[in-house]
Amino acid sequence: MEVVNALGRRKRAIARVFVSEGTGKITINKRDLAEYFPSTILQYVVKQPLNKLEVAEKYDIKVNLYGGGFTGQSQALRLAISRALVKINPEDKAALRSEGFMTRDSRSVERKKPGRPKARKRFQFSKR
Fold this sequence. Notes:
By secondary structure, the chain is of the alpha+beta class. The protein has one domain: Ribosomal Protein S5, domain 2 (2-Layer Sandwich), CATH 3.30.230.10. About 35% of the residues lie in helices and about 25% in strands. It has 4 helices and 5 strands. A 5-stranded mixed sheet has the order 1-2-5-3-4. A hairpin with a 2-residue loop joins strand 3 and strand 4 (about 30). Helix 2 packs parallel to helix 3. The N and C termini lie far apart (about 75 Å). The mean pLDDT is about 90.
């Protein structure tokens, strides 16, 4: 099997994934998964599509990850891994879609408007 690549995005985070056959090692920006995401919840989010298809020990995954915060990065990585697994085996798409791993979450921060403190917040109204 050759290397399969895929892209995942969430908020400002972008994850480029390279999947090859191996022993289940996940390397993010030349660091181990547990080192990059110390939180077990974020590690769980990243591994969700692999655990769903029961292929966690079958593939080695190399990741280029930048932008955004750690939650956005972990969700971008989950989407990228899901897309790569579908490229490898298209029959898995239905199982991943039912869990919501194939859907790009398009929500992002709304821009700040002029004359306002934030996007929608207004300055305090004073009658006198």
